[in-house]
Amino acid sequence: MYDCIIVGAGIAGAVTARKLAEHDKKILILEQRDHIGGNCFDYIDNNGILIHKYGPHIFHTNSDEVFEFLSRFTKWWDYHHEVLAYVDGKYIPVPFNLNTLGMIYESEKASVLRKKLTDKYGYGSRVAILELMQEDDEEIREIADYVYQNIFLKYTMKQWGQTPEQVDKSVTARVPVLISEDNGYFQDKYQGMPLHGYTKMFEAMLSHKGIDIRLSSNAGELLKFGEEEIFFEDRPFFGEVVYTGPIDELFDRIYGRLPYRTLRFEYEEWKQESYQPAAVVNYTVSEDFTRITEFKKLTGQKSENTTIVKEYSDNYMGKQNEIPYYAILNEKNIDLYKKYLNLTEKYEKLHMLGRLAEYKYYNIDAITLEALKLAERLI
Ligand code: FAD
Ligand code: UDP
Fold first, then answer.
1. Which ligand 1 atom sits closest to the C-alpha of 12?
2. Pocket flag, ligand 1, residue 37 (CB < 6 Å)
3. What pTM did the predictor assign?
4. CB burial of residue 122 (10 Å; 0-12, 13-18, 19+)
5. How far is CA 287 from each of CA 81, 160, 221, 236, 281, rounded to the nearest angstrom?
6. Cβ count within 10 A of residue 95
């Protein structure tokens, strides 16, 4: 009765489902959690604050297509994300930018350095820290060392258990040094938060007569893989299957577990209007947690109370209730991923999509675009 079974009701699964349903396909979504939205899920806590259960999610994109598609299901709170790092009793902007020079050097030196950086890289450019570290000029090297020591080294050690040199270059390049006065964390054309939250956006997206959802349903128990056939509830299923969960779990981890980092969130409810000077403060030189998020500052919610979350990172061990959040990208792990991907190839109608199934570091917008592309192919 279904044309397509989608495993996972996160952004990957939800966008694919909606697009297919609009082309008269009948879709079943299997979601193991008791809610939709995947890691974007948000809800109102006991303190009356809209919080993100799986860490702070800020929407940003340069894609008109993504923005237009998602805007069909939500209005937006016009929010421009700024992050501060807490360094030796001071709050400095992240990414490091030309404003930060004036906060750490006296004014004459700051203006010399400003000129040097703009002459060398061009105003408005984005330079990865590891690239800046290669610079021959001594004064630029001094800035690079400052940024490396005070922004990247300890935060990356906490987040990944590795130094910035050890993690894949693309990871630290996500937060460049900005040769401009832009204090924004992102420079995308569109930025914002769903006006009534992500969950409401997902509800609107999934509200279609062609989409059925089964929550608290683990696909591992319902979908079985034969020699070349896929079985759903013990009967052959001839439709398309879009899988957005961890690829190694799909094959009972026969080659071993794909490595991930997991996160632990510690929430605190405060009976005060404000907790910190920005929605997100990164602890780049001190503390065991990586960052503190104060949710109401992301959403513009007005309240006499506030809720914050401290975020701790650790190796994912596959324990119950532990969630694999970040693929650890390196050659060895990508080779292991490819071994699992090979196993999928004999199932013509099985498609891997999303952060977990593709073992990639996708933002919301990138996965939305991939989901729209996959749906087009299936249509
Ligand atoms: P998920 O959201 O993980 O959805 C997969 C779903 O599949 C889950 O609901 C899971 O329960 C379900 N599932 C898995 N296995 C099974 C199974 N066997 N049976 C049934 N269901 C199953 N992106 C941004 O653009 N901006 C941000 O600010 C941002 N912040 C982030 C902060 C953190 C802490 C993290 C970890 C990520 C952040 N991201 C951000 C990335 C964003 O979370 C992802 O791009 C997005 O959630 C990926 O969606 P997905 O559908 O691929 O995966
Ligand atoms: N990073 C850092 N210090 C910071 C912010 C980021 O060292 O203050 C590094 C860290 O390695 C992190 C990476 O840059 O994992 C990418 O940061 P981003 O904020 O994009 O990570 P996200 O939380 O969005 O996955």
1. 51
2. no
3. 0.97
4. exposed
5. 23, 15, 41, 53, 12
6. 24
Task: Yes or no: say if 371 and 353 are a contact pair by the CB < 8 Å rule.
Answer: yes
Closest ligand 1 atom to Cα of 13: 51
Bridge partner list, 326: 261
Q: Does 325 contact ligand 1 (Cβ within 6 A)? A: yes
pLDDT tens for the chain, 379 residues: list them. 999 999 999 999 999 999 999 999 999 999 999 999 999 999 999 999 999 999 999 999 999 999 999 999 999 999 999 999 999 999 999 999 999 999 999 999 999 999 999 999 999 999 999 999 999 999 999 999 999 999 999 999 999 999 999 999 999 999 999 999 999 999 999 999 999 999 999 999 999 999 999 999 999 999 999 998 999 999 999 999 999 999 999 999 999 999 999 999 999 999 999 999 999 999 999 999 999 999 999 999 999 999 999 999 999 999 989 999 999 999 999 999 999 999 999 999 999 999 999 999 999 999 999 999 999 999 9
Beta carbon of 336 within 6 Å of any ligand 1 atom:
no
